[in-house]
Design a protein that fits this description.
Elements (H helix, E strand, L loop, with lengths): L3 E4 L2 E4 L4 E7 L8 E7 L6 E7 L4 E3 L7 E6 L4 E6 L8 E9 L1 E4 L3 E6 L1
Parallel strand pairs: 2-11
Antiparallel strand pairs: 1-3, 3-8, 4-5, 4-9, 5-6, 7-8, 9-10, 9-11
Length: about 110
């Protein structure tokens, strides 16, 4: 059973930055990919960013250019940095890890104040 623990959410001012962390119970290299999804109220969960085992990354159009996904292999941790936060970035953010199946963290709430 893969354990994913997110942290770093909270209340952030519009225009500011945040960094979310996802600590995995296994090596990040044991997963085909890891990523961050988010679900805003009344909306479906959407992919924000992902990173493959080989290090390739992809981003949603809505965050492209102001978002960076990265990982610390020694800490088995994946990070999501979003800059220039907008009200529409408010959501519950979920970490994911894919190996045969997709595994989810419990989610962390991000609230944007104007």
């Amino acid at each position: 059973q893969v354990q994913l623990v997110e942290s770093g959410g909270g209340l952030v001012q519009a225009g500011g930055s945040l960094r979310l962390s996802c600590a995995a119970s296994a090596s990040v290299f044991s997963f085909d990919s890891m990523g961050w999804y988010r679900r805003a109220p009344g909306k479906q969960r959407e992919l924000v960013a992902a990173i493959t085992r080989g290090g390739s990354t992809n981003y949603a159009d809505s965050v492209n250019g102001r978002c960076t996904i990265s990982r610390d292999n020694a800490k088995n941790t994946v990070y999501l940095q979003i800059d220039d936060l907008k009200p529409e970035d408010a959501a519950v953010y979920y970490c994911s890890a894919v190996v045969a199946d997709i595994n989810w963290g419990q989610g962390t709430q991000v609230t944007i104040s104007s």
